[in-house]
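tool_log.txt
---
The assistant was asked to compare two proteins side by side. It first ran the structure predictor on the initial sequence, then on the second. Raw inputs and outputs are pasted verbatim so the downstream comparison step can read them without reformatting.
(1)
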Amino acid sequence: MAFNSINRTDVPMIEICDLEKRFGHLQVLNKINLKVNPKEVLVIIGPSGSGKSTLLRCINHLEEPTGGKIFFEGTLINDSKKNHKAFERHINQIRCRLGMVFQQFNLFPHMTVLENVMEAPVHVLKQNKSEVRDRAIALLDKVGLMDKTGAYPGMLSGGQQQRVAIARALAMEPKAMLFDEVTSALDPELVGDVLRVMEDLARDGMTMLVVTHEMGFAEKVGDRVIFMADGVVVEDAPPHEIFASPKEKRTKLFLAEVLK
């Protein structure tokens, strides 16, 4: 179910061309080509070790690609021609516009929930503290945690901490969000609250790349689903096609296993 009209004549929000990543002799990504349009929700599924998380980490340059090109809003991210300092500044600017939420929450344990959400806009973007505070409170309300502003991470459930992590990423006012298996470390009863926040973001028009094992979410919220295996994109189709009538044998085998 697509929540928004995607303008496919625009420059892609994210474009990946012949992306490769190797760790020594291990080829983790092999000639990945993808385009993600503004407001599009791309869900990435596949078995463990297929390269899904590495793909997201390369997009955000937490892993340096071995080859290929990554464009964000038409700008080349991995421009190796820049000198080291210029390249670091360039990557940090990109990360401010390309939020990422991980499986682990990575909150600052000595800071309150509100302070966690405010930290980067105040100290990285140098924004007005009062304005950041107002926006942070609004974001915590959006993720259903208005009553936890003064709490510390250790006082929260895993699902609550993950929603704080999402609010923290949104506080940077990103143009797109990367979600890397954000529910996989949660107890089953806590997963729904996090997925509902992500569904709301999709409804609001946030461009999203989501690595997940939650097939119900993929089918309901994704505009497209890609199935990855062995470092390549095996199949790329709308959710109803992937789940009702996958074309590739490898996709059929994977879905038969995870949906049984």
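(2)
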Amino acid sequence: MTTLPRHATELSADEARRIALRAQGFLGAPDRRAGVRGVLRHLGAVQLDTISVLARSHELIPYARLGAVGRKTIENAYWKDTHAFEYWSHAACILPIEEWPHFAFRRRAYRNRPHWNHPLPDGTYDQIVKQLRSEGPLTATELGGAKKTSEWWDWSGTKIAVERALMYGEVVCVERRGWKRVYDLAERAVPQELLHDDLDDTECLRRLVRLAGQSLGIGTRADIADYHRLKGEQVDAVIADSGLVPVVVEGWGRPAWADPAALRTPPRGRHRTTLLSPFDSLIWERARTERIFGFSHRLEAYVPKQKRVYGYFAMPVLAGGRLVGRVDPAREGRTLVAKQVTLDGPRAVPAVAQALTEAATWVDCTDVRVERVDAPELREPLAKELARLLG
């Protein structure tokens, strides 16, 4: 377990919260010139997920920071001209292409790991590599089929082979097409100056720990490890040489580390008001979200309907640097439906109405309908504020 020296900088809980908000792109003017690619490089990882309500999570991430960016613009920013690749980080994530060499440690680990659950038919691996070389880029379906049966987990030999090649780094996911991965050979997809695995594990881990610290602004050992799903002992081995500096945060009760650049100037500027994807890196780790914001949240999409508290895809509402409520959204034609709204008191009404109105505009909805408000007395004030904003 990492311990901090006595000279560690001391910060209040509020200072730590504001540092985290600025590091994640929610405090201060956004860098619109850098656009979506700037958001990706600033965060270091954008998580992917199959759920699409307002939009898919990797679209919601830049929207939450930049506002109404065109969805086609977002996809092009990720995938055109080899600016990114998909790989296993916090989960399946879009990553900046320049970080390809720093995931060599994970590719090596996958190559050395037995794959018990997916036996690979003889010759299939070599066949998909040969086919991609001659015909790629291709989806698993185009390579010969992704599934043996209709069950989502019942992969074909082709799918097992190409996913293994992806984990090993011989194959790269170069885009998502209709949510299907499009595979190509790494030798063709990754710029030659980056196509190497010669960095040792220590160099890779040091880089990823520093990147996590920069993206978080401030974090505990567990926060930093979770960002790219490293092990605690991997963080311990390199954090002293990562460039991060030790800090003590009021009320956290555990050692923490910060990006030194984040400590040089006080976090100031305009706060973003927006709906957040549950997979947003600001809140994707529940313990950190509770520690920083005093806000307990979990995705209930995989919870039986009768046991859900806040809804299928409840999205926290960020306003004034606080999490002030939740909205479980849906779309019906050109109406954004707030199926369930939870508000942190009357003062949250304007912010939640603003977040809903902006989200509706972004997804080309002309109306917002509220179905349920957990505090019934706030339903009418919310409806009036929505009517005012929608004109």
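---
observation on (2): Residues 201-216 form the longest helix (16 residues). The radius of gyration is 22 Å.
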